[in-house]
Amino acid sequence: MKKNRRLIQLVIFLGVLILGGYAIGNALFASKDGLPRKGSEPPDFALLDMSGKTHRLADYKGKALVINFWGTYCPGCVTETPDLVKQYEKYKDKSFEVVGINLGEDKLTINNFVKQFNVSYTILRNESNDVQRTYGLRSYPTTFFVKPDGTIMDIFVGPMAEADMDKRIEKLLQS
């Protein structure tokens, strides 16, 4: 009887120890900054396109979505734009969208860039840079790959080669 009682006490103690350790670990290592991560939903936005139409993140629900933060002054952004255009043209007939969110530049600068690179995907203007802050961007370009269910599959910081894009978009379209 005493052995069973000791065994039960030991099991309860170990259970409390494990649960306590889990709770403490979660409290110490959980992200408190609220920034988007793989598996989370990206922050909502409401931004104007080049013709003045408002676009919201919710408008793309149910589609595989690539959100690319870029600027004309960013060498990596300039380098990857032709490849993004190719990817968009390759997959646009599927349930797929690319949205380029410009980093606070004026409409004339953006228009010239769009014409120069024949950008055919949606370009949104974020003149106040508030969306960049809510996404926690620290480097450009930064690209978010959002699954049709609205969760982030991947985040790529820096310029991507066409093969990198293709691999991620293929995976995105299969999700």
Description:
The chain is built from 5 helices and 7 strands. The protein is elongated. The protein has 175 residues and is of the alpha/beta class. Strands 2-1-5-4-3-6-7 form a 7-stranded mixed sheet, covered by helices on one side.
- Estimated radius of gyration: 22 Å
Mean pLDDT: 87
Count of beta strands:
7
Order of helices and strands: HEEEHEHEHEEH
**Structure classification:** alpha/beta
For the largest beta sheet, what order do the strands appear in spatially?
2-1-5-4-3-6-7
- Low-confidence parts, pLDDT < 50 over ≥5 residues? 25-32
Shape: elongated
Largest sheet properties: 7 strands, mixed
Question: Which helices and strands, and how do they pair?
Answer:
Layout: H1 2-29, E1 46-49, E2 54-56, E3 64-70, H2 75-91, E4 96-102, H3 107-116, E5 122-125, H4 130-135, E6 142-146, E7 152-157, H5 162-174
